[in-house]
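> call design_seq(struct)
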């Protein structure tokens, strides 16, 4: 007899660990209890994770996780209760249709749902049940040290192409970076979202969200930088990744970047991005990239010498630990309560690589 439960109690961690290690791999980051509790925002008072679970006796047959993330959906002053779904998996011997049953259960809990990196198996199911999917989140790439990039080129990419992506710093605009805690709490970071119409569809980048997603991350060291007034700052979040495999170098991963509307906000954004890229160049990074659906923010990369990556020609790898010379794209899928809330143009959404589990380590030692 299969039973469905809306939450996962951490007291049954051993059963969850067995399921994850069997259906993913034993060294997958989600097999680490520390990473698992962070990812699902496990409250120590309840010791429960937001995962719809299918149980048969004491063993799991399927799971679908969900993480609450309030969103703005057309208005800078209204919030919608929403969740990102992640880790949708059923055992090979599970009855047919169990995965769809888990999806319907999560939809009953959160009418607003988003997910990134839907698999080739899962995405058609989502689309058949009314989800809107954006096949490729745009990727912006800027080359910082071309000599460090040559060994990573693939898919027919040539060294002369790198010069077309070369960082062109704005003279006198590289400022010292204020990082992390300085931008983490009021009164320093208290944005008035009416200054950010480009964030009108997406997760609220509140101080608490930045704290959870970046400062509290159990594996990566992110740097949160800001420029401007507390009510309308430009914000850029990045990390430096050490590659290994076919080549050993560093790559800058810019995972959040936004700035207020208007000429002053645009200048703040340009100055901040120029400062971050200058810092990454000095740190020895080969290139930097930024996945983002909102072209207004990505366009500043092109002003500084970078380019929007071709949808059909990827020549610098996405996966770097180890370097994988295979084409990888990020997608995003959205489910809304009714057609009245449907986002007809997904490029109006603000989604980046860091939304929920888009930016995750490849391996972790399980604990």
């Amino acid at each position: 007899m299969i039973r469905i439960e809306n939450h996962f109690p951490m007291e049954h961690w051993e059963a969850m660990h067995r399921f994850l290690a069997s259906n993913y791999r034993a060294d997958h980051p989600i097999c680490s209890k520390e990473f698992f509790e962070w990812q699902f925002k496990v409250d120590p008072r309840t010791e429960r994770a937001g995962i719809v679970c299918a149980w048969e006796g004491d063993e799991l047959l399927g799971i679908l996780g969900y993480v609450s993330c309030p969103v703005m959906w057309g208005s800078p002053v209204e919030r919608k209760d929403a969740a990102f779904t992640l880790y949708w998996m059923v055992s090979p011997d599970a009855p047919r249709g169990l995965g769809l049953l888990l999806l319907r259960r999560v939809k009953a809990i959160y009418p607003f749902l988003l997910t990134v990196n839907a698999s080739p198996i899962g995405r058609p199911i989502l689309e058949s049940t009314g989800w809107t999917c954006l096949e490729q989140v745009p990727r912006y790439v800027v080359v910082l040290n071309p000599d460090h990039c040559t060994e990573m080129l693939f898919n027919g990419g040539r060294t002369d192409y790198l010069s077309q992506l070369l960082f062109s710093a704005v003279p006198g605009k590289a400022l010292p970076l204020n990082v992390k805690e300085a931008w983490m709490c009021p009164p320093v970071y208290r944005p008035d979202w009416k200054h950010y119409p480009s964030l009108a569809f997406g997760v609220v980048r509140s101080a608490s969200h930045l704290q959870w997603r970046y400062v509290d991350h159990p594996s990566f060291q992110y740097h949160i930088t800001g420029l401007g007034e507390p009510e309308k700052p430009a914000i850029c979040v990045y990390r430096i990744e050490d590659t290994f495999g076919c080549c050993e170098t560093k790559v800058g991963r810019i995972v959040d970047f936004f700035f207020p509307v208007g000429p002053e906000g645009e200048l703040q954004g340009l100055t901040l991005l120029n400062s971050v890229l200058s810092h990454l160049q000095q740190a020895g990074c080969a290139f930097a990239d930024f996945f983002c659906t909102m072209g207004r923010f990505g366009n500043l990369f092109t002003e500084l010498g970078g380019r929007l990556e071709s949808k059909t020609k990827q020549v610098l790898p996405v996966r770097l630990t180890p370097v994988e010379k295979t084409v990888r794209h990020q997608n995003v899928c959205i489910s809304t309560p009714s057609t009245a809330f449907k986002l007809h143009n997904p490029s109006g959404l603000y989604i980046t690589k860091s939304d929920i589990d888009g930016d995750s380590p490849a391996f972790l030692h399980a604990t």
